[in-house]
Amino acid sequence: MEQTLTITCKLRPTPEQALKIEALLKAFADACNFVNQSVKPSVTSKTTIQSQVYHDIREQFGLSANQAVRVCARVGANRKTAKLKHKPVKAFRPTSADYDARIFAFREKDSTVSLTLLGGREHIRLDIGNYQRGRLKGRKPTSAQLCQHRDGFYYIHIQLTDDAPEPIKSDKVIGVDLGRREIAKTSTGQGWDGKQLNQVRDRFSRVRASLQKKASKGTKSSRRRCRQVLQRLSGRERRFQQWLNHAISAAIIREAKALNAAVAIEDLTGIRERTNQQPRSKTERRRSNSWAFYQLRQFLAYKAIKEGIELVVVPPAYTSQTCHCCNHIGLRSKKSFNCGHCGWQGDADLNGAINISKLGAVVSLPRGSGLFCSLEQAVSGLPKAPSL
Ligand SMILES: [Zn+2]
User: Fold this and answer.
1) Per-residue confidence (pLDDT) for residue 369, from 0 to 100
2) 24, 106, 265, 323 — which has fewest CB within 10 A?
3) What is the pLDDT of residue 271?
4) Are residues 140 and 23 part of one domain?
């Protein structure tokens, strides 16, 4: 099994190089927009796109042969994603361009990348720390994206592909319930309270509110100062969240490894499109729409692959309302769960996590997990579901 890790590195271009990067990004986006307008919208194959417009791209936008190929691939890929969401591809903005082995190389000895820009190759210095240096040590990456982030600086996203061990089949499954009362709760009873996180969030939001107020009044220089502080704070909040997500996902994977178990989480892909029409609770919306939970799921997924842990996704319906003892629908009120059928009472998140682990076992094991109602014998001798 293969796993790809993306390393983001800030670039330190000279002013001349920065102008060339800007021109390249613009040419790449212009070419994408040209292709998107001139090739029939239903065509998504990059080879078909290439056969129709390759020569036009080379003539009109000053891109190299491989860059023209990357343009066709980008439009094709974006069209495929858009098709899944039943939306057309919108315009391409000049914020990123794709690179492959022919037009991109990483040089370890002086921490530079060489990139084909318009009119030739440029060696650009990387502004990187120990993490990136360690990851890139001894590697010859073959694909990357040149990007301009919202902070206005240029970055290179470098892909590193590794062989990951084949996941071990196991009859044990740890269910993980993400982002209800707690940030995460496992069926084995491990939990991460959202309290500390919420306190930090609230503190940030208070500070933000007061700074925003100041930024709208005051002198020109104090307004500018407030905006700078706001920008720095947004980075700190994001880094705190990232650190926490790393810690939680690492602990879950560590436990799975120790128990030789698979990990099950709820499948929330597409839930935004499917369920936003129906009224949903605030927690439910946060669970599926927030980038922080999306990030935690992604961290879990890539750590699982890396460690050879099987990760299964289960349908999210009813995992929080069903009683894990008797599989009847019970009553959930805030932190606790009450089953009117068998009388089980306890932590609602734990109940959800155990349900996810049982559903996960259905997915990962052919012989099932015993997830069914127990049937009573009717007078006629036929099985009968017990009445609620
Ligand atoms: Zn029950």
Assistant:
1) 45
2) 106
3) 53
4) yes
- Residue 126 belongs to domain spanning: 2-163
Q: Note residues around ion ligand 1 (Cβ under 5 angstroms).
A: 323, 325-326, 339, 341-342, 344
Cα(319)–Cα(173) distance, rounded to whole angstroms?
15
* Cβ partners under 8 Å of residue 218, min gap 6: 226
| pLDDT tens readout for residues 309-348 | 988 888 877 788 899 999 898 888 878 899 989 999 999 9
Instruction: Report how far ligand 1's centroid is from the alpha carbon of 340 (Å).
Output: 7
How far does residue 368's CA lie from ligand 1's centre (Å)?
Answer: 20
CA of 339 to the centre of ligand 1 (A): 5
- Exposed e or buried b for every residue in 278-298, given b needs 16+ CB within 10 A? eeeeeebeebbeeebbebbbe
Q: Give me the number of domains the chain comprises.
A: 2
Model confidence at 387, in pLDDT bands (50, 70, 90)?
very low
Residues 56 and 113 both lie in one domain: yes
For residues 189 and 87, membership in a common domain is answered with: no
- Residue 322 Cα to ligand 1 midpoint, Å, equals 8
Last residue of one domain, picked from the residues 112, 144, 163 = 163
The answer to whether residue 34 sits within a structural domain is: yes
Rounded alpha-carbon distances, angstroms, from residue 44 to 17, 72, 75, 82, 152: 34, 9, 8, 10, 31
User: Are both 127 and 184 inside the same structural domain?
Assistant: no
- The reported pLDDT for the residue numbered 186 is 94
Q: Would 214 be classed as within a structural domain?
A: no
- pLDDT of 374 over the 50 cut: no
What spacing in Å lies between the alpha carbon of 316 and ligand 1's midpoint?
19
Residues 146 and 183 reside in one and the same domain: no
Side-chain half-sphere of 220: how many Cα atoms within 13 Å? 0
Q: What is the DSSP letter of 112?
A: E
CA–centroid distance, residue 327 to ligand 1 (Å) = 6
For 136-191, how does the pLDDT look when each residue is reduced to its tens digit (9 = 90+)? Answer: 999 999 899 999 998 899 999 999 988 877 777 777 899 998 876 778 899 999 98
Q: Is residue 213 part of a domain?
A: no
Name the percent of the chain lying above pLDDT 70: 87
Residues 152 and 271 in one domain: no
Residue 1, pLDDT > 60, answer yes
Asked whether residue 349 is assigned to any structural domain, the reply reads yes
